[in-house]
Structures are given as C-alpha cells and as structure tokens.
Amino acid sequence: MRPTDTSNPKYFHKVVDCQYACPAHTDVPGYIRHIAQGEFTEAYMLNRKSNVFPGILGRVCDRPCEPACRRGRVEDKPVAICRLKRVAADNRDDVKHLLPVPPPSNGKKVALVGAGCASLAVANDLAPLGYQCTIFEKFDVTGGLMRSNIPSFRLPPEVLDDEIGMILDLGVELKTNHPIESMNALLEQDFDAVFVGTGAPRGKELNLPGRQEADANIHIGIDWLESVAFKHTESIGKNVLIIGVGNTAMDCCRTSLRMGADSVKVMARKPREFFKASVWELEDAEEENVDIIVNHSPKEFVIESGKLVGMAFELMEYDIDDNGRITDQRTTGEVIIPCDDVILAIGQDNAFPWIEKDAGIEFDKWEVPVVDEATFQSTRQGVFFGGDAAFGPKNIIWAVEHGHQAAVSIHKYCQGEDVADRLPDGQTLASTKMGIHEWSYSNSFDSNERTIMPHVSLKERFKKLDIEVELGFSAELAAEEVERCLNCDIQTVFTANLCIECDACIDVCPVDCLTITHDGEDEDLRTRLSAPSENNEQALYVSGALPSTGKVMVKDEDVCIHCSLCAERCPTAAWDMQKFTLHHPHAKDEAGQPAVKDVA
Amino acid sequence: MSFMTRPTARHPKLPVNELGLTVRDYEGGMSTLCAGCGHDSITAAIVQSAFELSIPTHRFAKLSGIGCSSKTPAYFLRDSHGFNSTHGRMPSVATGANSANRDLTYIGVSGDGDSLSIGMGQFAHAIRRNLNMVYIIENNGVYGLTKGQFSAAADKGSKAKKGEVNLQPAIDPCQTAITLGASFVARSFSGDKDQLVPLLKAAMKHQGFSLVDIISPCVTFNDHVGSTKSYEYTRAHFSPAIATDFVPPAEEIKAKYNEGEAMQVELHDGSHIVLRKIDKDFNPTDRISAMSNLQKNNAAGEITTGLLYVDESQAEMHELNNTSSTPLVDLPYDKVCPGNDMLQKIQARYR
Fold first, then answer.
1. Structural domain of B260
2. Topology of domain A100-201+350-414, per CATH?
3. pLDDT in tens, A198-235
4. What is the mean pLDDT of chain A?
5. In whole angstroms, what is the distance from residue A387 CA to residue A396 CA?
6. How does strand A383-385 pair with strand A291-293?
7. Min CA distance, B215 vs chain A (Å)?
C-alpha cells in the first residue's frame, strides 16, 4: 500500500473527528485547551472564527461533533463539546475590541434576504471587507428560526441579541418588517449580489380525515412555536399529542408543558432507533415526563360535535434486519388516544412564493432551487442561496458554513473572479515538544466520566416560559470536562527513516494502535494489527519501508488517545506529537487580508 | 523515563484469554528505562506470553537481582509476587521461594552483568539443581546502570561507545548452561517477538530450569557502530536455527510441517513444543549436536537463536530431593513445624 500522504490536509483533519464532523470545522481541541487555561475570551474568539455564534450554538447546536468524538469510542460518552462552547461564551470578557473594524466601503452592495443565521454569517464575513450589506427581514426581530422556533427556555433572547448585535455593529444595515415579495423587484435594485437565507419556513401538513373540521385544535409545529415566541399564543389544551419525533417535536412538547398542558404524548410511527430527534433532546423531554409512544401511525382525527376529541392510530409492527433496516411492516390493531390539541411536527420545506418563474432561477421538480454545492450560486449569476433555503432543513451550524462559503463566492463574484476557483484547505504542523517528555498540551489520560449538565429543578422550570433549563457548567465542572478531551489535533507524526524497529512504541501504546508488519493492502493489513481493526471509517496511517527490515509501521487511528507515549518511548524521535492547524479559507483569506484580529 | 502514569484507556475490542483477562491485566507499572531499551520489549513479550497461557497473575513470582534488567519485574505482572534481591543473588532467593511453594510459575530476570560476573556461581548452581523457573538474561553486553562498562558477555573485539576495544573473551550463557546440564536453553532477540513469545511460553511450561538468553540492545551505551549487541548488528547476524511453536495441551497441532523438518517435544502438562529446523544440521534434543553447532555458528560470527537445547526427561529440584508434592505453604502448620518433640528426636540422630 502506498504510504499515507500526510501532505494533504484531509488526512490529519479527518483524525480530528470533532473538527472534521463540524460543518464549519471549528477547532474544537484548540478552544477546549483555551478553556482549560481559563482563557475564555480566546476560546470564544477561536470558536467565533468558525461558527460565528458560540453562545447560541453552545446551547442549541445539533452537535455533529459529539457522536464523532473519539472519546465516545474509547469509552461510552463523548466529551461535552457543545456545553464547553457555552462555558467560553458565559465566561468571556467583552470582545468588542477584538472584532474587526469595518473599513471604508468598497462600493459593492449585497442584499441578504432573511435575518437568520445564514444571512448573518454572510454579513459577518463580508462587512469587514468593505461590502455594504443590507438584511431584509419580514418580522420586526432578527434571528429567524433561531428566535421563532427555538423556545426561550433553551435559548434566551439576550444571547441571540448579543451575538447578532456583534454582526450588525460591523456596519450592516438591517431592514426589519421588510418582507421581500418579489425577486424581480429586488434584482432591479442597485445590488451587486443577492443572498437568499430565508430558511425552510413551511411546516408539513398531515391530510387525514377530520383535518379540516378540527382545524382550530390542530397546529403546524413551527408556526405554533413562532406564535408562542411572538406571544400570539399563550395557552394550549390539557392533553396534547405531538405527531412526529424530530427536534421540533421535542421543542413542541416541552413548550406545551409550559403553555398549560398536563399530559403531553409524542407519537412516533417507528421504533426508537429511527427517531430523528437528538438523543439529548429526547432525554431532556423525557426528564419533563413527556411520554414518547412508538409504533403508532396516525390514521384520523376524531371529532365529536365539531370538536377534536382524540386521534386514531394504527398499531404498527416492523421486521428489522441485522443492519437495522425495516424489511417489512404490518398493522396489528387500532387505538384512539383522546386529546384536546394536536401539534404536527413532521418536517418542513423551504418555500419561495416570492421568486418569480421568470427570475432566471431554476427550480427542480421538488420546487427547490438548483444550487451549486460548493459555490452556493443559483442558476442565475449573482444570486446565492444558503442555510435551509439552499438544500432543505439542516441546522444552524450548517447554515453558518453555507454563509461562509457563500460569502467567499459573493466576494469573488463582486471582484469579477471565477467563483469556482477557490483556495484549497491548508494545514500547519508544529511540534509540541517542550523538553524531554514534556509537551505543550495536557497529554495524560484523564479517566473522568462525562460531566452531567445541571438543570433547573422540575418544579421551578415550568413557572415561566423563559426560564433557561440548563444552568451551564461552572468553571469547576468545566475544568474537569476539558481534561476528557483527547487532543486529537496533536498528531502522531512518524518519520520512517529514523525508525530502528525497537518496538518501544508498540509495547507502550496503551490502546494497541501500532504494528510493525509486512506491507499489504488496507483490507489485508487490518487483519494483522495488534488489536482488532473493525472501524473502517477510521484510517490506517501507513509508513514507507522501514530502513532495517523493509516492513512498515501501521497506526490504526481509531482509538488513539494522543497520550504521546509512542513519542516519549522512541529513542530516535521517529514519532513526534505535532499540533495540526487546519486553514479553512473564508472570504477574508480570499481577499488576502486578515480581517479579524486573531487572538487565538 | 516517562513522567505520566500508564493511561487506563483500553482498546475496546481487546481479546480476552480463558480467564476473561486482557493482555493489559498482565502489565505492571510504567517503565523508567531509557526510551527504546530492548528490556521493555522483553517485558512486553513476558506480558504477552503470560496472557496467552491464561495463567492467573497471582500465580507468578517474579525475581531479580541488580541492574537495568533487574528493574523490569516492576513493569510486568503487577498482581504477582515479587522479590528484588541483591546483585547476582536472585537464583538463591528463587530457590528458597520455589522450595516453599512449588506451584507458582517463577520468572527470574537477570542481566549479563548480574548473571555472568557477580552471580556466575549462583547461576551455575541453579542450573545444576534444575530449579523449576524461567531464567531470563536480558543481554546487552554492558553495565548500563553504571554508564556502559563492558560486561562478561561483551564479544572480544567489540567497541565501547567511546571506541575502547574489549580484549577479553565473552562468556556465552547458552553454551555455559548446556555444559552445566541445563534442560532448556534458548536464545532470542528483543526485537523479534514472533520468535520470543513462543519461546517464553514453552519456557514457562517446561518443568525445570529454562534459560532464555535474550539479546537486548542498550540504546544508550551499546547501540553504535562497532557494538556486537546493537539493533543493527543483531538484525544483520541474527540466525534462527530452530523455529518454535508452542501448542497448549487441549489444542490440536494444526500447522502442516514437511516430513523430517519438524519434531515435537511433549511437556509435562501435555502441551507440545513443535520445533522446525531452519538449520538442517541442528538437533536441539541432542546435546553434542547442539554444542558443536553453536560453536561452529559462533565462529562464523552468527548469533544462533531459537530453542537450542531441550531435555524434558531431566528431574527438577523437587523430584531430585523427593520433597512434598504439596507446596509447603499449603501444608497445615503442624506438618510444616512438627513441634519441639520432633525437633528433639531429629537432633538426637546427630548426637
């Protein structure tokens, strides 16, 4: 097999599981080390560089990083990455002086439709380069779905205002109560580029018998959450059924409890392993005594004297194969569950009634705009899409990354450059060796279990809608949790021609990552390693031929704890622990000027 | 040395042995030897062998004398019995321990300095007694702990780190042991666990004295050009004469061997050592053949490795002395110490 090409940043980037899984490629181990040093401001700014909204995301991020975290494979539970992010946001100092100062206008004007996370991320990247950004928002508040759909007991409005304010203060013009009703009209205005970040605002309908008659007591989840957020709705019936089991359903059920419901049931069509909601959101809902009922497929709304009194469900049974796929299903009966209100949380779509057919923007057969996955440009040059508006509902952190990439495109477009010709990712590797067996990171393994997030008591939290349930980690709890990070960005870098094959690294490795063996192809090598190598998602790091025997050094990256012992026990420094830094270009890099003061 | 404690993290898919233990359960503390020391590889091979044999960790006793080698018992089998004795005196302590409890597996770790100079007499007599133990010599040709003086195992003509040439002939522990009547003599290299682990397993199961002389390069004082115990020199002159496979009692011998190439030695517990000749002239069950071939290869500058000599028929110390088959530690107190009356009777016999 060819020796691993570590000059391509992708190899070491992939070893940093959390950073690789994060759509915005946040330098997670980097900011966790800052927190460990009590450098909350630096941790916050390092976060902000990639994900723009650390305080918001530290509470409500979908956390693709955590299921990816290596700690979850070494033991059970990943590092509480998301909540550490909040620690940085909660404890930071004022960062105003660290934010870019907008330069004089470069004369280019960008229209941003919707004041949600995608548009705000675009503005965050372009305003510091001199672009005049104008955000058009239909409501009288900013934040988009972050404000209207995420309940305030999970995300306090002050956090939103603070972080959105940082972007608006860069000289971004905000036009609230200003719905865009015609794309053509917008295009006729004096803008050099248009970005559409209008999200996926249309909740899916469930057309079953009785839907029309019971309309007064059937609510579309995201619309209902929005009307609660804007205080148009202040109560709900005693018995509430939530249809669907995604994260919106979790917000609906917990909000219902705060709107006066006594009994809330979340009705799922399939078994638990098929739920779309994140495990932690399910746990938080169940902690509040929400019933989650599986294998109930909605059949009809039951009406008595013109009023909703319950809902009929078919009881489902599934055959599931060894790969966890449903191979067959059948109904085994029917049941009616009484209720006063039903909330539908079965998905949402993006919708563009305001984009005319002749605007030059192509839509596909699902009525979704055709958008380039790398440049975020639509079929009409100069019109870009991002966030849920681009490829349907995802999450905030994806929207932020869309924003970064769209900003790159808008910059290149406005400068007359080819939007597809973008800077590639880069890397730097720097040794962390400080002396004999001393490293510039905390290399010893801490066996602590995952820190549990303290919550407001069940009695207290229902008193008001906006009592934030999670209290956040204290500095003391955070100090314990940070040590669980395995520092996956501190790479084990091997230099084959220095190796004398003394086996010291293999003998000392506590997690049996290393093997010296005869060369072979990946599949074959995996059968000959020190420990079973069953996780094909994780790479083998294969050296060139070793000088003494011509064998190769193979490292299975899967459960390496980056403890540095291989490097400490190596007599010839063939192993070194090197800090990997990913350079993931943003608009400022394309513009060739450091727009943000880099304190990290 | 590393300052950190051994991480408690484990590979989640680590295999378990018959006792449900993983190889990690057979480890000891973190090594304080120089990075790259051959001794650490030998430690790892002992750990691996003990794990594979599924011997409970508390059924081992590990003993040593003084030297870098003699520090290593701290790094394996943390739950076993241990005794770190004075320089060259490990065999006496091992003899005493073995006399009291014949049921443990004894691993003595010594070095070329500890065994071939100050401890030469003890080494020789432990062999003569056929003391049931594994006697490992971690052989690097120098006194590492006292800054790299030549040991008695240093080859004539080899060079010290600063260029001084050794003028005295080397003592070959394997030839010496065969001459003294040892029943199991093997040589290996710390850098070749494929060879070393089966040898150590066979040695642990052999009834009687098992000498395993292991070339173990000293990275700090004896891993340079001109050394005959360096990684590079050992690899270049490494000459496996006999390949050894250890087959546990209940297991069928599955590997296919060419006729005339393989020979089996059955051990007391019913396990087998399957020996495959790599050097055709070599017969490890014949003492004269073993000796003459060792001398011939030595003269040719080769480091002959493998199981060099084995004789399972020799009686070990307890058999020779007709001792109690129950270990003394398991006998009731009145049997071990029959009281004053009996003492008076015994003394009367000498009056």
1. 23-321
2. FAD/NAD(P)-binding domain (3.50.50)
3. 998 889 999 999 999 999 999 999 999 999 999 999 99
4. 94
5. 8
6. unpaired
7. 12
- Note the pLDDT of residue A71: 96
Interface of B with A (CB under 8 A): 1-15, 24, 31, 34-38, 40-41, 43-44, 190-191, 193, 217, 219, 223, 231-232, 235
Mean pLDDT of A290-302: 95
> Quick check: do A100-201+350-414 and A203-346 share a fold?
yes
Q: Is residue B335 part of a domain?
A: no
In three-state form (DSSP H/G/I as H, E/B as E, the rest C), the secondary structure along A562-589 is: CCCHHHHHCCCCCEEEEEEEEECCCHHH
Task: Say which CATH topology domain A203-346 has.
Answer: FAD/NAD(P)-binding domain (3.50.50)
| Closest CB from B11, B190, B223 relative to A559 | B11
Task: For strands B303-310 and B184-189, give the pairing.
Answer: antiparallel
Residue of B nearest to A73 (CA): B12
Contact A571/B at CB under 8 A: yes
Q: What is the pTM of this model?
A: 0.90
Which residues of chain A neighbour B31 with C-beta distances below 8 Å? 508, 569
Domain total in chain B: 1
Q: List all residues 6 or more positions away from B217 whose beta carbon is below 8 Å from its beta carbon.
A: A502, B37, B38, B140, B190, B191, B223, B227, B229, B230, B231, B234
**Tokens linked to A1:** 């097999």
pLDDT the model gives residue A599: 45
Q: Taking the CA of residue A532 as centre, how many other CA atoms within 13 Å lie in the half-sphere pointing to its CB?
A: 8
In a domain, B207, yes or no: yes
Candidates A502, A549, A563; nearest CB to B36: A502
Provide the pLDDT confidence category of residue A173 given band limits of 50, 70 and 90: very high
Q: Measure CB to CB from residue A501 to each of B4, B14, B191 and give the nearest one.
A: B191
Closest CA to B196 of B176, B216, B220: B216
A242 φ, ψ to 5°?
-105, 125
Q: Which residue of B has its CA nearest to A567?
A: B35
- Find the CB nearest B11 among A445, A506, A511: A511
Q: Residue B40's domain is classified under what CATH number?
A: 3.40.50.970
Mutation pick from A76, A443, A501, A508 vs chain B, by most beta carbons of B within 10 Å, is A508
pLDDT for B176 equals 96
Contact A516, A503 (CB under 8 A): yes
Chain segment A142-153, per-residue pLDDT in tens: 999 999 999 999
Q: Taking phi first (over 0 means left), then psi (-120 to 50 degrees means alpha), and beta for anything else, what does residue A495 get?
A: beta
Residue A597: pLDDT above 70? Answer: no
**Inter-residue contact B235 to B216 (CB < 8 Å):** no
**ipTM of this predicted structure:** 0.90
Nearest CA distance, A495 vs chain B (angstrom): 16
CB contact (8 A) between residue A531 and residue B235: no
Q: Look at residue A456 and tell me whether its pLDDT is greater than 90.
A: yes
How would residue A595 be classed by pLDDT, with cut points 50, 70 and 90? Answer: very low
Residues of chain B with pLDDT under 50: none
User: A569 with B75: CB under 8 angstroms?
Assistant: no
HSE-CB at A362 with a 13 A cutoff on CA atoms is 10
Whether B59 maps to a domain, the answer reads yes
Q: Which of A507, A532, A548 sits opposite B232 (nearest CB)?
A: A548
Q: How far is A334 from chain B (nearest CA, A)?
A: 44
Alpha helices in A80-130 (DSSP H): 81-91, 117-126
Does B232 sit within 8 Å of A500, measured CB to CB?
Answer: yes
A77 touching chain B per CB within 8 A: no
Region of poorest pLDDT, from A290-299, A308-317, A346-355, A481-490? A346-355
Interchain pair B4, A444: CB under 8 A:
yes
Q: Within a domain: residue B135?
A: yes
Q: Measured between CA atoms, how close is A559 to chain B, in angstroms?
A: 7
Domain boundaries, chain A: 100-201+350-414, 203-346
